[in-house]
Amino acid sequence: MELFLHYLSMPYMIQGIEVTLQVTALGLGGGLILGTILAGMQLSRFKLLSSAARIYTVIFRGTPLILQMVFAYDALPHIGIKLPAILAAGLALACNEAPFIAEMLRAGVLGVEKGQILAGQALGMTPGILMRRIIAPQAIRTMIPAFGNEAVSALKNSSLASVIAVQELTLRSTQLASSTFDFFSIFFASGLIYLLLTSAISALQIFLEWLFDLDRTSKQVKLMRFLPWYRAQGIDDPLQDNEPAPDILPDGGVAELPPPRLPPAPIDHAARAAALARNDVAVAVKALRKNYDANIVLDGVDLAVRNGEVIALLGPSGSGKSTLLRCINNLELWNDGTIEVGGRRLGFNHLGKPLSPRMAAQARAEVGVGMVFQQFNLFGHLTAKENIAGPLRWVHGVAPAEAERRALQLLERVGLSHRADALPRHLSGGQQQRVAIARAIAPNPSVLLLDEPTSALDPELVNEVLEVIRRLAVEDGLTMIISTHQLRFASEVADRVVLLAGGAIIEEGPADQVLNHPKNPVAQRFLSAMDAE
Ligand SMILES: Nc1ncnc2c1ncn2[C@@H]1O[C@H](COP(=O)(O)OP(=O)(O)OP(=O)(O)O)[C@@H](O)[C@H]1O
């Protein structure tokens, strides 16, 4: 026992531990840098880069680390690169770790919901902002366990550096054992040291998982201040996050909605139509054609929407309503035709050439096209307030205090001020959609596109969202195009109903005319089927 303790504290062994840690740190640090570059190449749109990354991965994942170390130490000098043994071992370990780390990074990035990325783009975020603010924070959290495993394996793999005479722990243990013949005590001590080191890594992993856990509450929050997205955590008042979901009222509303106003007065559509006729065109879609391979989804669609007008877009499932909205916001490329929003061709420069993703994002933010999605697409790591304030700061350069004030004001408007610090997953579907609407209107868009905003909601939550949309139409005079299956809502709120089928607009006009007296036989069949539901 005494000998065992002696070996544990022996300076010769401790120096070995230091070298082991150096090789591991070089391997992990270098692996992280190389892996990040490799992941970027793998995710790149350029085939040459992604192919080069794939070839690198095949080579370094498919050959033993021990050979790579020998290569780095013995073969590189032949081309004039002579590295000290520790550096050669660190380099080989880094090159070997890189493909694994790249895969982790790639999986983390691809694991972020596509809808959130689409929402970020719709809000005018450039690829850089999207990566920094939306993708990376969420990807990092999911990568911590895998990175912990990788760190443990790098530490153990560092022992292979003994093959090129790096004086790390395993080599020193072997040397000591061959000179003292006390194999058992020495290797037992060495094994225990490795175990302590890997346990330290596991403890660090658990700590990081705890630190990045968004569901933590109260006193633990002080450490969170070190996180770049600290403001986003919704921990100022942890009690709010833990509030139970509000009770659903018998009439389908929810308990925390603002005090019920007088029943909304019916909209005077004739008066609105007369006023709207004098307004400029906000959205002009001309001869729009869009196909996915052989599937022609939009086949020469023409649509003009005036400022302040509310359009209800109806049509059978798969008729291209979502595709049309995504094209209007330039989130989708199309094959032919033009789309102008506020007189500008979104996504194209004045010569008609497509803009880069970055420029297109800026144009989208300048023109101001808000979008609300069927699946809400709130940013999962940000609180309700930050979902609204964040894009205002990052995309529109609004000062933090002003962005927060606007976010709180809008949350109050949609009846959710007391849930400002709640994470999306702590909100009901209806609440999430109301936050999503507040987020979309925060930058004062000129047009709001709503893609089946109530389809993913339970029936009792539909009304709360429709009420918010109705207020935007009546009180704010916001130009809106709403893809919906809610016929009653369309007839109440829409100035015009547009019915899409077979890639074309088959019927359009005032809601009463289209919904109650359709002329087109396909429209008649569709509407009577909808009525029957
Ligand atoms: N990314 C895509 N790749 C290939 N086909 C697609 C893609 N997106 C949509 N489609 C196809 O385009 C057609 C129109 O889809 P879209 O989602 O626009 O219809 P929709 O009217 O919004 O339907 P729903 O009411 O069910 O949401 C469908 O046939 C669909 O399968």
UniProtKB/TrEMBL annotation:
A matching Pfam family: BPD_transp_1
Ranges in coiled-coil conformation: none
Membrane spanning stretches: 20-41, 181-208
Location within or outside the cell: Cell inner membrane; Cell membrane
Keywords assigned: ATP-binding, Cell membrane, Membrane, Nucleotide-binding, Transmembrane, Transmembrane helix, Transport
Domain ABC transmembrane type-1: 17-205
Membrane topology: Multi-pass membrane protein; Peripheral membrane protein
Main location: membrane
Highest rank taxon of the organism: Bacteria
Residue span(s) of domain ABC transporter: 283-527
Gene3D superfamilies the record matches: MetI-like, P-loop containing nucleotide triphosphate hydrolases
NCBIfam families given in the database record: HEQRo_perm_3TM
Family label: Belongs to the ABC transporter superfamily.
Function (record text): Involved in beta-(1-->2)glucan export. Transmembrane domains (TMD) form a pore in the inner membrane and the ATP-binding domain (NBD) is responsible for energy generation.
UniProt name for this protein: Amino acid ABC transporter permease/ATP-binding protein
Organism: Rhodopseudomonas telluris
